[in-house]
Amino acid sequence: MLAAARKDALLDRLRRDGRLVVKDIAVELGLSEDSIRRDLRELDAAGLAVRVYGGALPASPAVADYFARREVARGSKERVAAAAVALIDPGSTVLLDGGTTTLALVDALPRSFAGTIITHSPTIAAALLEHDAEVIVLGGRLFKHSAVACGAAAMEAAQNVSADLFFLGVTGVHPETGLSTGDAEEAAMKRALAARAAETYVLASEEKLGAASRFGILPLDGVSGIIADLDPETELAGELRAVGARLLPASS
User: Which three-class secondary structure state does DSSP give residue 181?
Assistant: First the structure.
């Protein structure tokens, strides 16, 4: 089997099963485990899979650049955003992560919302210019891929705020790897913000479900809930609940 055909077979298995075990697929394809591992390394380097111990998981398409992500799963993001806005009480203090699903949340938030919004994303802050809410921006080194502030200054600023809710953006929600994203510093910043809120809810549009990224943020049971654009009767939904995830359905 040619290398290109092997890789296509591996990607098909990832799409079908949501995971791949090296020893099993090697037997099925009649290939050596070393060949499979080499293919997985190349798929990982190309951003098409995420290697884990013993195999691989599907890579999240949500790690594409910021402007490309704005066109991914727009309807799904809008459904998640509507469900998130329903959790916000008048006058509350809300921490908003960066990202395109959070931007959809801002679009869905009534302009008359009279609370306080704290964010480390300049794009989210700019989107709130016509809202009545007080807006507090946390500064630091700009991570351009996600248009958010990260690094030591941003982490220190996060320690001086507190909120009722934090809406957390992720690039992967997977029963094995939990909540993940594509950058280590961004993952650390997300954890710091989650620690400053009474409740944390994950914004999980369809492209993030069943996918994984390189750096873990929190376990699935480490947040108050996951607003998931996912049929609750699917196998994936059952697997997520089995490991402690509290799934909140997105609006239809």
Answer: strand
Token couple for 37: 């591992």
How far apart (Å, rounded) are the C-alpha atoms in residues 217 and 202? Answer: 11
- Tokens encoding 174: 């997977």
What's the confidence (pLDDT) of residue 220?
97
Question: Are 251 and 84 a contacting pair, CB within 8 Å?
Answer: no
- The residue written with tokens 């090296």 in the block is 22
Domain map (residue ranges) of the chain: 3-59, 66-249
CATH code reported for the domain at 66-249: 3.40.50.1360
Q: What is the CATH number of domain 3-59?
A: 1.10.10.10
Residue position matching structure tokens 């479900």: 209
Residues (pLDDT < 50) of the chain are: none
User: What is the greatest pairwise CA distance in the chain?
Assistant: 63
pLDDT, tens only, 100-141: 999 999 999 999 999 999 999 999 999 999 999 999 999 999
Q: Measuring CA to CA, how many Å separate 33 from each of 13, 50, 55, 207, 246?
A: 16, 17, 10, 30, 37
Helix (H, G, I), strand (E, B) or coil at 108: helix
